[in-house]
């Protein structure tokens, strides 16, 4: 009934992907059994182009810290994905391209690497930022610079961290700014909403897409700089997600 990637079977997701390929949106390549590898494909010209997924060049950039653009890798389309994550990621690229004019997406990990968890099994995306232009105006946002490192007086500290004692009492900091950069604020709101309806939000099973969480509230499985969970020194809290948004299909551990 509700055709959102987190709620359908792998074979249903594969059928959707084959439909995308038939429409000329993406190109699939041979992969390991049960997984999907995307080939770089320019849907406008109908020719191969390294790293292009639904009109967006996908590039690795571990930190997403502006000023270190020389570290951005060449475009590579993700490989060995769970079909549901592949479907969600294609939809993400298509949506970013059509709604925001995005032509580059930066990430800190998408391809499956064989490890026995959501990332290793190709079910997760670490989103770092985007670049493009809309009606001649540049769009260039990274999670680190335009969200996690943002100091909001009275809310976050000078280096963008939540103050000691905040606990789980977080909120979407960009809405609290006195003079918010409404462009970035709106971008991450829309991006989060996409994640909360296509990837796991409140739990790891079936979830209706009609009641997504708000940034900083309730969500367990979408990790970001304003997540309620504080876990300094570990990989599991908002501190470890100051520079990227983590999204997953299914549970965090093996599935
Ligand atoms: Zn992650």
Descriptive tags:
255 residues; alpha+beta; two-stranded antiparallel sheet; 21% helix; binds zinc ion
Number of strands: 10
The ligands bound in this entry are: zinc ion
End-to-end distance: 23 Å
Shape, principal axes of CA atoms: globular
Query: Which structural class best describes the helix and strand composition?
Result: alpha+beta
How many domain regions? 1
Low-confidence runs (pLDDT<50, min 5 residues)? none
- Major β-sheet, in short? 6 strands, mixed
Strand percentage, roughly? 15-25%
Helical content stands at 10-25%
Rg for CA atoms: 18 Å
User: Count of DSSP helices?
Assistant: 4
Helices and strands, in order, run as HEEEEEEHEEEHHE
Global mean pLDDT: 95
Could you explain how this protein is built, in words?
The chain is α+β, with helices and mostly antiparallel strands. The chain has one domain (5-248). Helices cover 21% and strands 17% of the residues. The strands form three sheets. Strands 5, 6, 7, 8, 9 and 10 form a six-stranded mixed beta sheet that branches. Strands 1-2 form a two-stranded antiparallel sheet. A hairpin with a 2-residue loop joins strand 5 (52-53) and strand 6. The protein is globular. The mean pLDDT is 95. Zinc ion is lined by residues 119, 124, 126, 246.
What's the SSE blueprint?
Layout: H1 10-22, E1 27-29, E2 37-39, E3 41-42, E4 47-48, E5 52-53, E6 56-60, H2 83-100, E7 102-107, E8 124-134, E9 137-142, H3 143-148, H4 182-198, E10 245-248
Parallel strand pairs: 6-7
Antiparallel strand pairs: 1-2, 3-4, 5-6, 7-8, 8-9, 8-10
The structure holds zinc ion.
């Amino acid at each position: 009934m509700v055709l959102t990637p987190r709620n359908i079977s792998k074979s249903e997701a594969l059928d959707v992907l084959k439909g995308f390929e038939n429409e000329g949106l993406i190109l699939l390549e041979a992969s390991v059994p049960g997984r999907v590898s995307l080939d770089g494909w320019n849907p406008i010209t109908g020719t191969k182009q390294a790293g292009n997924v639904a009109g967006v060049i996908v590039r690795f950039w571990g930190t997403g810290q502006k000023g270190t653009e020389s570290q951005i890798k060449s475009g590579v389309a993700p490989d060995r994905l769970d079909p549901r994550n592949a479907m969600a990621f294609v939809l993400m690229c298509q949506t970013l391209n059509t709604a925001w004019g995005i032509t580059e997406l930066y990430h800190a990990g998408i391809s499956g690497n064989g490890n026995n968890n959501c990332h290793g099994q190709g079910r997760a995306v670490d989103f770092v930022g985007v670049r493009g232009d809309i009606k001649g105006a540049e769009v260039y946002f990274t999670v680190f610079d335009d969200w996690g490192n943002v100091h909001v007086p009275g809310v976050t500290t000078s280096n963008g961290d939540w103050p000691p004692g905040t606990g789980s009492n977080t909120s979407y900091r960009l809405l609290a700014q006195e003079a918010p950069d409404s462009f970035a604020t709106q971008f991450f709101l829309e991006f989060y909403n996409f994640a909360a309806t296509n990837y796991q939000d409140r739990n790891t099973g079936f979830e209706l897409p009609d009641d997504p969480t708000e940034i900083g509230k309730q969500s367990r499985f979408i990790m970001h700089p304003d997540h309620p969970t504080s876990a300094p020194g570990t990989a599991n809290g908002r501190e470890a997600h100051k520079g990227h948004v983590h999204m997953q299909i299914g549970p965090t551990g093996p599935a």
